[in-house]
Amino acid sequence: MQTPQHPGDENLSREDAAARASVIVLDTIEVDLDLRSAPDASREDFATQSTLRFRASSTETWIDFLGISVDEVEVNGAPQPVEWDGARIRLSGLAEENTVRVRARGRYSRSGEGLHRFTDPVDGAVYLYTQYEPADSRRVYPCFEQPDLKARWTFHITASRDGVILSGGAEAARAEVDGGVRVSFAETPLLSSYVTAVAVGPYHRVDGLWQGERQSVDLGVLCRASLAEHLDADEILDITRRGLDFFTRAFDQDYPWGKYDQIFVPEYNLGAMENPGLVTFTEAYVFRGAATAAQREARSNTILHEMAHMWFGDLVTMRWWDDLWLKESFADFMGTHANVATGLHPDAWVTFASRRKGWAYVQDQLPTTHPIVADIPDLEAAKLNFDGITYAKGASVLKQLVGFVGEDAFFRGAQRYFAAHAYGNTTLEDLLVALEEASGRDLRSWSTAWLETTGLPTLTVERGPLTVVQDVARPHAVRVGLWDDEAGRLVARGDVAVDLFGERTVVDAPVLPDAALVIANVDDRSYAKVRLDDRSLAAVRAGLSTMPDAVARGVVWAALWNAVRDGELAASAYLAIAAEHAPRESHPALLSDVLAHAAFAIRHYVSDAGETSVAWLQGAWRAMSAADAGSDAQLIWARAVGAAAELCTDRAGEMSAILAGEAPAPAGLALDPDLRWGWLFGLAASGHADAARIEAEAERDATASGRTARLAALAARPEASVRRDAWDDAWDDETLTNDHLDATIRGARAGKSRDLVAEFDGAYFERILPAWRSRSIEIAARLVRGLFPATDDTAAVDAWLEAHTDAPGSLRRIVIEQRDHLARDLRVRAAQPRP
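Above: the chain sequence. Below: its structure as tokens.
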């Protein structure tokens, strides 16, 4: 057995991965896990064994493993001395054909990376699940951890008899063993390591079946037993069946992976993960109380996004993480496209325009922005590139591409791509060839302009003659919408298509009325920020909520918010427009985003937030009270009340009385646990809920969600000693799970926290590098982002960056991004008009 004293470098480089792939042809990996130790809280280890079969043209290579120990290495039947530096197991004496067996001990995770272990406070049940992307399967079993070394996998899992034992393949055999059961699974088709999966525990299961034109697939929907009453499996199965109908027809390719289980798991770091045959989702999609149409749309989008990955990413996989977009951009586009095409959510592109594109616009204006086809030198860089560029910007330009080549040609190209590269690995060139063959169009200039560049154009409109101006010349087609005021309502006068190439393009059309409102990119087809001229802004101030077209409203709301972020529209002006028109905004996703932006503006852009906070809370309270009973709008405004309560004390008495049952809630408003905790967190942060009140709520909601919410609320109390303890716990208490760390950080930064945490600014810069070196990247990144000081200048950040030019590039990237957010806050705040 070897336990390294000085762990090796976990950060696999692109060059090392390419060198290994050049000498290895991988055939199969057989994994044997013994997880009978999971119910014993005192045990952090489990037994793991991998048997790898491969051809080699070199006598040496290495296997990846991160764990407690490596106990035995056997090469072609002969024991070999264990040479393990904590990350790589060195192999020598390889032949042309090899069978390598490695026996080791892994560590249960509390960070959501690798094999995560969770104990349900409701019933004490223990649950396990895996999460690997981009490179954490090596935390569970020895393997070749890179996407272009695919294998056929066979899993054997030994665990307690209670509950389910799952992997991506179908169960093939089951045998009783001492203290449990050993389950063997059918061999998978060729898969990359990061999409293999395991789940164990007393999960509640609902079965279903999809009957397609050429195949039938067994379906399963699972969640923790204590959440079973909240699992709306029928709706999830309906989405799944419609999605499989759509994708198998659109891609002209059968579902490749046998069964299709979808499991909702606790303390999950992502929205979901596309493990074929065993897709994992965050439990946030199991709604414990009321859920808006926007929340259900988002869940449907995620289900369809992961389903698209069964082809884009799983069947055909990028060679290295530079081409991460080959799966994520496509899945992001396909999730929304399929939501519309299946009839599940016909206006899903409205949400995409507001939410997903907003994410991309923010990311693309950071100094660390990157092309969609990115330069990813190593695994740490890959981890941080799961961002708004790779997902939402990529999906946005794919939407442009579909418009450019035509939907039929686009899907013919996808069909060619899957037929040519099934179970293989690809690069950008492979996709372009398939799309060019299907469409007959040269896509190289499009790729250069959109996939291989950074930044986004800003579109403005000049009148007389009507001209579209873009500050960054990109080739794209937009529609310019023309609207007029009719008896207090904005009415569409028509739109005109404009092909943009240079910086200035005169709109050429037979009739162009002198419209009150002109909107470039009115259908949100292109990827660009939109600016409104003064006359259009005046029209929007008066009539935004009267526009019947939700997509156009979404473009306008986004234009207003981007102008605020750029310091060109006063935050007070945005808040005034929101106060006037948000109560009449009928689209729940748009309303949620507008209210989130308003709350952000108050926290970050308003110099004197006191009076503004009071006015916003009062307006949110009135809108909640006036909304239709039981409506999405009522619930969204009620959540906004909780957020606003962090910053001011008005309505605290009424909120407390409603929570205590001493006063009635607005008619139709369901005070479910999540809403109650939202209000209580706001009250705690503003000093109106003490520890006793929080503990009483925790007794009322003795669930995992309640436990996490309790931590956040306790840490949010505006007392110096409380915030100091929370700050110290975040850095030092390594027993905190990923969710509990987030809750602690959220509490430490809640409400008017600056005076309570300013003393820690210096310690932050002393702690971030040691944390990066000693904690997993998932946990370290949360600490570096979440506890970044909201100082009044960037001097301390600049000093750290200057003194740490040799710090890991991924750490520097996060600090640089946080510095840019801070600089924007300061710049926009300084640009606000004086009262």
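The radius of gyration is 27 Å.
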